[in-house]
Amino acid sequence: MTATIQAHGLVKTYGRAWALDGLDLSAEQGTVLALLGPNGAGKTTAVRVLTTLVKPDEGSAELAGIDVLTRPEQARRNLGLSGQYAAVDEYLTGFENLVMIGRLYGLRRAQARDRAAELLEQFSLTDAAGKPSKDYSGGMRRRLDLAAALIVRPPVLVLDEPTTGLDPRSRIETWGVIRDLIASGTTLLLTTQYLEEADQLADKITVIDHGRVIAEGSATDLKARIGGERIELTLADPADLRLAARTVGSVTGTEVYSEAGSSTVTAPAPHGAESLMTALRELDTQNVRLLDLGLRRPTLDDVFLSLTGHSAEQAPTNDDSTPTKDNR
Questions:
Q1: Residue limits of the ABC transporter domain (predicted)?
Q2: Who has greater pLDDT, 224 or 105?
């Protein structure tokens, strides 16, 4: 099957910094591709290339069979885009915002009004249709922005960190909207820093760091890369971190994950509960006190930690993580 979203060998530099370094992406029709990575990994630059906002220095990209580099106007007709921040006019009502977007896409006035009413109902905004969008909650503004991206029923939808800044309830509501879109056949590229979001929504996850793909597959595939059950210990005293890591490592015979300044030690547990109990006995002889302990299945956060050496929440900032031409 031909991919609805595909990119090959994308390279983009800004001065001496490499934003994209040979990036490949693909997504089949009616699926969700999650582009996962920390700030500065190249996610937003990839989105800008695919949505015709930025031209790459090298590489190619297509949306629904349309070359975004040679036919950008035609590619945009097949595309809906929702950025990191809701791009709505706060002084217009929800209804007026959608009608305006419809008119900008070339719909006749009656068509734009009918489509606006349909989308307001679909996104549970009918009761707020006549209110200025500045009075909307964050979740409502995000739903309105998603509705605007769908005004012409595009086959491809690109959501750049769609739930950034939303509270947990609004994030879950947005996930529900996204699932409905995919059920209707839309192909979605989703960039996110939220590992749970990728786990919940994506058919395929591409993990990037420093503008390069470092892993890809389904959430299940990626979790399988780091094995089965894991020990997780939270220390009462962070000063015991190195001692605890050495002790757990000697018991499990596996690599132990711990970060300076944290109070958590994580390691694969090759013998499950037996590994945990042995580690606890050894830590007790070392007088290492614990606040919490557990034996759990791996998560995408474990995958990210294994692949990059840091957790998603403690990922380096853009200034620290963007490679230069001298240190690639």
A1: 5-235
A2: 105
